[in-house]
Amino acid sequence: EIEVNTNEEIxxxxxxxxxxxxxxDLKKDLLRGIYGYGFDKPSSIQQxxxxxxxxxxxxxxxxxxxxxxxxxFVIGSLQVIDLSKLEVQALILAPTRELAQQIYNVYAFxxxxxx
Length: 115
Fold this sequence. Notes:
- By secondary structure, the protein is mostly helical.
- The protein has one domain: 3-Layer(aba) Sandwich (Rossmann fold).
- The protein has a two-stranded antiparallel ribbon.
- Belongs to the DEAD box helicase family.
- Keywords: ATP-binding, Helicase, Hydrolase, Nucleotide-binding, RNA-binding.
- It holds the Pfam family DEAD.
């Protein structure tokens, strides 16, 4: 379980971090979407939280707006979702319809090349 506080302090039992998206061994088409979206390198929260998501760990992340939280769970979940299975594999909750739409748009853009 990872917790990222708004003041950038991290309480975690996960010690592995990455400096680049390439270190995450992501699907080629997912990387294409990440770089196409404009991400150059992982933000602080992405460096710490994408890998545990990929490994099936529960992640709780709290950080300031614009810190990369949405990208974190979009990238982590798109990496592990099996597109051949027509069943729910991820559930993202949002407090407002507007935020839910923004999250959907990030999923659609980053996941555009996945087939």
